[in-house]
Structure formats: structure tokens, C-alpha cells
């Protein structure tokens, strides 16, 4: 008996310890519907909203500007395709021509994406309006059902639901013209993206052919047979295409051109008006000595990257402005005329090469140009090395020796038909030297501008 009482007490104690209190789930708050007195005023407010709805939706349906922009992009795409058809198979294009054409295709695809994004924003706004009117219908339906004991007049009730149905119908049909235009734009964009992907594949193939013979050797008679009327026609076509400007370039990039001019003039005028002659020689004195060159260099350096697309001769023109202004700034840093002639020579070769790439110079002509440059540059580098003094900085003599090693390599590669390898080594070597000088000068320029701004 005592054991039974002990077991019962133990069970009761365990159940009281481990029992969990069941908390009832909170009831959803009941929506309190307005009374009958609010029916007519809110019906009038609904009618006013419905009266403004057509004008509101009309603002989202305005596609005139979008269609105009789409027509311009389509016409530009058609002209570009027509011009490139005359250039022969893309598999035979040069590396630079493929890059230029891919850049134009990508720019058109980006412009199309902007139009699609604009239409998507409008469609999202129309969808919000449609959801709002569907919500109004549910709200009024629940309200009418809650007024069964004292229902509103039938004619007012019918007018309310007719107004809501018209709003839903109007918002539902508003998206049709936008969807149609968006589909046309997306179709052209898909074509551009597919073409860009195909060009990217061709470019990657050319990059993998660096150590392969991809041109005829200069000792082959077949190479010289390429100099025929067809080659001359291709040269004229390339020059004509390079000199052609896009119709909407100035309208779409006018603000950027104006910004570069204002920045260059503003910086130059600021330095010219505020510079003071210092008795001590400053490390960045060249900034004060050449205010206009400083303004042009900073303008080109800071804003040139914002051009989404440009004519073929646009990049060489910007390079020329940037390099000429940089030479004016770098000049005082070189106390030796022997170093200056090397810098001027490399800069001239670099700018001429970039211009010839922009002109889509046929490969046989460009290869002869490069051979001529290599053969002329060799004796100049050898003469510079012989005239180098022990007081010259070691980097100057190292550059001369590396140049004398690179030139025979490039010349041999061109001679045997490894034109891609020769172009890569030749242009990368010159660009590396110029880039080092520009970075060094840019650091000094930045330090000079900061100190000048803090002291004036």
C-alpha cells in the first residue's frame, strides 16, 4: 500500500514538473469594415481615382522616345553589319579589328539593355497599379458583404464595381505595347550577345596562336603576291571606316567632351593664377611650369575611360593628347638628352602603331611597317648603349640592353611568320616602358597637386 502511494506521488510530481502549458494561438485581428455612412464618400473618392487612372497609365505607355532610340540602335547595327560584310570572313580578321568590332557590338548590346531596363521599370509600375485595383475589388467585396443588414443602394454599388472592373481592365491592357516593344529589343539584344560570344571565341583562338605560325614567312613568294589591287582596296576601306563617325556619338557623349575641356581649362587656369615662384627647387616644379599640359593630362587620364563607344580614331587621338602632354611634363625630369631621344622615339612608335591599328591596316602592310621599325630601332639602341655613361641610371642601360635582345627576337618571329608573337612582344615592350614612366610621373603629379592645393 505504501509502495502504491509512493508511485502515485512520484507520477504526480513528474507530471507537474514536465507538463507544458498550452498557450492558445492568438486569434487573427478582425477587420472592422466601415459603416454605411462611409460608402458614398469613398465611392466618390474611387471615381476620382479612376478618372485619373488613364492619364497616369498613359505616362507609362509613352514609347515614342524608346522607339526612336531603338530605331537608331537598329539602324546603327544594320550599317555596321553592312560595312563588316565587305571585310571578308571574320576568321581572317586581325586581332585589333576583332577587338574593335566586338567593342561596338558590346556597346550596342549595353544600349539595348538600358532600354529593356527602362521598360521593365514601367511594367513594374503598371503591375503595381493592377495589384492595387485587384486589392480594391477584394476590399469593396468584403465591405458590401458586411453590410447585408443595411445594404447600400444597388445603383451606387453597381457603379462602384463597374469602376473597379474598368480600372482592372485598363491596367491589365496597359502593358501590351510595352511588352511588344520589349520583345523586339530583347530579340536584337540576343543577336548581339550571340555575335559577341562568337567574336570572343575568335579572339581567344588568336590568343592561343601566339606560338604558332599564323602568317606567311617573309621569305615566301606567296607573301609578296598579297600586294595586289584587292589589298589596296582593303586598305582604302579600312581608312574610310576609321574616318566614319557614328551619328549619335556627339549627342550621347557631348557632355563628356565638354567635361574634359572644362576640366583641362579649369586646372590649367587655376595653376596659372595661383602659382608662386619658389626659391627652392621643388620635386613637382614641372606642374607649375606647364599648367596647361597638366590640365590636359589629368582630363585625359580621369575622364577618357567613360566613353562607352568611340570612333576608330578616338582612342589614338586621346592617346596622342595624353602622351604629348605627358612628354611636356616629363621633359624637365630628364636631364640627359640621350634619354629624351629614346623616350620621344618610343612614344612616336607607340602612337603611330595605335593609329595604324585604328585604320585597320592590312596584315601584310603592317608586318612590313613593323620590320622597318625594328631594323631602324636596332642601330639607334646600339648607338645609345655605346654613348651611355657610367653616371646614367642603371635602369636606362638595362632598357637599352633588353631592347637589343627583344628586337632580334621580334624580327626573327616576323620573318618566320610568327606575327602574333612578334606583335605581342614588340608592343608590350614599348607599352611597359611608357607605362612605367607615366606611373612615375603620375605619382609625382599627384603629390604636387596635393601639396599645391594645401599651400594655396
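^ C-alpha cells above, recovered residues below v
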Amino acid at each position: 500500500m505504501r509502495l502504491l502511494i509512493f508511485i502515485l506521488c512520484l507520477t504526480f510530481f513528474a507530471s507537474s514538473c514536465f507538463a507544458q502549458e498550452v498557450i492558445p494561438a492568438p486569434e487573427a485581428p478582425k477587420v472592422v469594415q466601415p459603416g454605411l455612412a462611409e460608402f458614398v464618400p469613398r465611392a466618390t473618392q474611387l471615381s476620382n481615382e479612376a478618372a485619373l487612372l488613364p492619364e497616369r497609365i498613359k505616362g507609362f505607355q509613352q514609347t515614342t522616345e524608346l522607339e526612336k532610340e531603338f530605331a537608331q540602335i537598329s539602324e546603327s547595327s544594320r550599317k555596321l553589319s553592312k560595312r563588316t560584310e565587305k571585310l571578308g570572313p571574320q576568321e581572317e580578321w586581325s586581332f585589333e579589328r576583332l577587338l574593335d568590332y566586338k567593342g561596338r557590338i558590346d556597346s550596342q548590346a549595353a544600349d539595348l539593355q538600358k532600354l529593356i531596363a527602362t521598360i521593365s521599370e514601367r511594367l513594374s509600375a503598371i503591375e503595381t497599379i493592377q495589384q492595387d485595383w485587384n486589392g480594391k475589388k477584394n476590399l469593396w467585396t468584403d465591405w458590401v458583404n458586411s453590410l447585408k443588414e443595411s445594404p447600400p443602394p444597388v445603383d451606387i454599388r453597381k457603379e462602384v464595381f463597374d469602376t473597379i472592373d474598368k480600372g482592372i481592365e485598363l491596367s491589365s491592357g496597359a502593358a501590351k505595347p510595352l511588352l511588344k516593344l520589349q520583345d523586339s529589343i530583347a530579340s536584337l539584344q540576343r543577336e548581339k550577345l550571340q555575335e559577341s560570344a562568337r567574336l570572343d571565341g575568335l579572339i581567344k583562338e588568336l590568343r592561343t596562336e601566339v606560338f604558332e605560325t599564323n602568317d606567311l614567312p617573309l621569305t615566301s613568294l606567296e607573301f609578296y603576291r598579297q600586294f595586289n589591287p584587292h589589298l589596296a582596296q582593303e586598305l582604302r576601306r579600312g581608312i574610310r571606316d576609321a574616318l566614319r563617325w557614328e551619328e549619335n556619338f556627339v549627342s550621347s557623349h557631348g557632355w563628356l567632351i565638354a567635361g574634359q575641356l572644362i576640366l583641362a581649362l579649369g586646372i590649367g587656369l587655376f595653376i596659372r593664377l595661383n602659382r608662386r615662384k619658389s626659391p627652392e627647387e621643388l620635386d613637382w616644379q614641372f606642374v607649375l611650369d606647364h599648367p596647361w599640359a597638366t590640365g590636359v593630362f589629368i582630363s585625359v587620364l580621369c575622364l577618357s575611360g567613360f566613353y562607352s563607344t568611340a570612333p576608330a580614331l578616338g582612342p589614338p587621338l586621346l592617346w596622342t593628347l595624353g602622351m604629348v602632354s605627358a612628354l611636356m611634363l616629363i621633359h624637365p625630369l630628364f636631364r640627359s638628352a640621350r634619354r629624351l631621344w629614346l623616350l620621344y622615339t618610343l612614344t612616336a612608335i607607340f602612337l603611330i602603331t595605335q593609329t595604324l591599328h585604328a585604320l585597320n591596316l592590312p596584315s601584310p602592310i603592317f608586318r612590313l611597317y613593323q620590320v622597318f621599325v625594328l631594323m631602324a630601332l636596332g642601330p639607334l639602341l646600339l648607338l645609345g648603349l655605346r654613348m651611355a655613361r657610367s653616371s646614367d641610371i642603371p635602369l636606362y642601360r638595362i632598357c637599352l640592353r633588353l631592347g637589343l635582345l627583344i628586337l632580334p627576337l621580334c624580327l626573327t618571329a616576323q620573318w618566320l611568320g610568327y606575327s602574333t608573337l612578334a606583335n605581342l612582344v614588340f608592343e608590350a615592350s614599348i607599352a611597359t616602358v611608357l607605362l612605367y614612366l607615366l606611373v612615375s610621373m603620375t605619382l609625382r603629379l599627384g603629390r604636387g597637386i596635393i601639396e599645391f592645393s594645401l599651400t594655396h
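The chain has 16 helices and no strands.
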